[in-house]
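Sample A.
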Amino acid sequence: MDLIEQVNDFLWGFPLLLLLMGTHIYFTVKLRFPQRNLWQAIKLSLGRTDESGHNLSPFSALSTTLAATLGTGNIIGVSTAVALGGPGAVFWCWITGILGMATSYGECYLSILYRDCRPDGTYVGGPMYVLKNGLHKYKTGLFYALCTLTAAFGVGCTTQANSVSQAAAGTFHLSPHLVGISLALLTGAVILGGVKSIGSLCERTVPAISFFYLFGCLLLLILYRRQLPAAVLWIIKDAFSFAGIAGGAAGAAVQRALRYGIARGLFTNEAGIGTSAIAAAASHTKDPHIQAYVSMTAVFWDTVVMCLITGLVIVANMLYDPASAAGVAQTDLTAAAFSHLPYVGNAFLTISLAAFAVTTLIGWSYFGEKATEYLVGNKGIPYYKLLYVLMIYLGAIIPMHLVWECTDLINAFMVLPNVLALLLLRRKIKP
């Protein structure tokens, strides 16, 4: 256990942060700032097109990506970033989202370019197919698929079920067994319907859940309106503060904000990990530019909007009621802020967490399914779905610390081949 933690601290402390941020910056410059076309990308993402066969519309593909990425990272992850990195971490998390859009564009562009078409006309793709078809590295694709499958059972399944179980037990005093069974049945009913069922549910529920959570945040920002200018100023000043921490060397504060802000941003939007490319490949869109732009907006909504709003709520509450944020657990700063919503604050946040976790369960089930298909073919998918549903129940009732650590390590292993493929095939990616 200690060894896994040490490896994670090393990988996610500097090497991977440098690799991913460097990749973000490189593709931002190489692709001539695709972020400048954000408004056009949003309009493309909201346009409903006729779906072809069993493939997804661009909007459904985007919603499936958001289903997997929106959730605990935006709520608990930002809380942890501020607790460990200070208010300045919110700024660097935001910057990570802006720059990460370029990497997401590249991932999804290559995924459309190198995807496979099944006999029934449906498309499958993602980094494993980019590695196989673009670089002719089938075994490396197997490694990536195996990591994706493992991560699906970890961050996508058991940890999400556990977060719902703990929140429901704390707020509504519900049995973990009851929560686990309910989640397993609900998720199982959706994933058994296949990709169209997943996409259809995600495109209806993800926007509704997001607006529900943002509505609560906006109510809090209205409550904290007098503290909001000071909160923004605090975030910016702390992001560039070169003061020492606890007698440390000058610059320790900005290093802390950089590390935790960037790390949380990368975790929540998954730009560079490659999962969004798996959903993008299922789109019936044949133009890689269109789907790349559509998928790029997932990073915008996930990090640039959701993480920023959550961060503003947390920091403004630290000014509004310092006592409520003092001495709480790293993961509870968001809960401390929501406690100021009269009567419904805790329940509101718990419902939001539960709803986001359910969509994450469904979104990641698709990523794991495509990884299973790459590894063993269609014959393995029914067994995967059965095991996935079982793991949801187990995740709700067992401790999760070791699973979190192992998942962080697996995510690191996913980054390496995906970024390698991006850099080696960079000339194939067109702005």
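Sample B, a different protein:
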Amino acid sequence: MSSPKYDVVLYGATGFTGSLTEQYLAEHPQQPRVAFAGRNRSKLEKVLQQLTNVSKERVQSIDLIEASASDKASLTRMAQSAKVVMNLVGPYSQLGGKDVARAAVEAGAGYVDLAGEARFYADLVQEFHGLAQKTKSILMPSAGFDSLPFDLGVYLAVQEVKKVAGPEAQVELALCGYDVKVTVSGGTIASIVAARILPGQLGYTRPYWFSPVQGVHEQTKAQARYLPQFNKWGSYSFFTRHNARVVNRSWGLLEESAGTRGYGHTFEYLEGLVMPSRLMAIIKTNMFLIIIWLVVHFEIMGNLMRKMVPQGTGGSMEEQLKGFGDIRTLATAKGTNAKGLSVIQVKGDPGYLKTASMISEAALSIALDYEKLSPLAKQGGVLTPATYGGDVLAERLVKYAGFSISGADVTQVKDLSKAVQPGKPIAQSS
């Protein structure tokens, strides 16, 4: 059987995040074999014309593929031509996301997306995990800001604990704090609104929805949560419920594998969005919860949000360049005082500009670094950043995407807020 023609096929290149992603892939120093796919060829051709800082030869090397969720045969042809399919057409539950994933799985191709839709993610697990193991296809939903850096941060923090307390150490808690500046796109709003048809998707419930193993913790709704790695208080956010479910899937998959990379039998994940004070954390938490309640119960609220930020629009490049992400995860061992801290930092809007690099490097790690991935990755299935090859992904984000990623034993550190770049780095930005 011949090798696929392309390393990566980007399906949904004409959308807001798609345009950022195709620019990233076109400029990538490894010059991967790339094709842009969508239902409208004229729009795809316009995308090519809008590429900047790219040679004429590089532009000419990028092929265009007409494909649509309404034409299953076109999806099959697209998937068969790719090592990895990147699906950026959302809301996924409404725009044929499962059909794209199915085409990839049946072709034995990798699949990555940006889905923050719980029902869609759960359906991928239920319908495709077993089949993907048969075809050795790696599926990685939620490979953008939700929930890649959070899941990766937990994995790296746990490994720091194990360096100190031993490979069999049981981690009882991973506490993630994050300070971010992000913009909002119409696609994100559309996905939030689409989730209203199943309230549980937006609710702070069912933390083990994606996990093959049922854990022992309920997802508690703290009004404010202290984050010692920042010495500040954190609030609930729109990302919390999905991040917890993805991290718990990583935990469950590692529990099943019985390997030394596992987190701990009673592991718990908690997080908070950094706020300037405890009072502001409480106010922010309640604001998020009220917005979610309004979206779930009043269709007019969703319509208003979509009108304010139409699909296909988002923050200007100037706004995105002012963005940043600082994600610090503190892991604590059970029965000992061992603590590990991971720090993931990036300049640029992590929700869009840097999401383009996150999903790209996730796809490219499958396409170009397959042999370096984990034993779980070689088995195939619906996996997570932590379980398919977290170390490989961390290295790529640092080398190619401008991330700074570090980690250390902080057992003896009294003021964790000053351990922003602790110890020997996992990886250093170039």
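Observation for Sample B: The chain has 15 helices and 14 strands.
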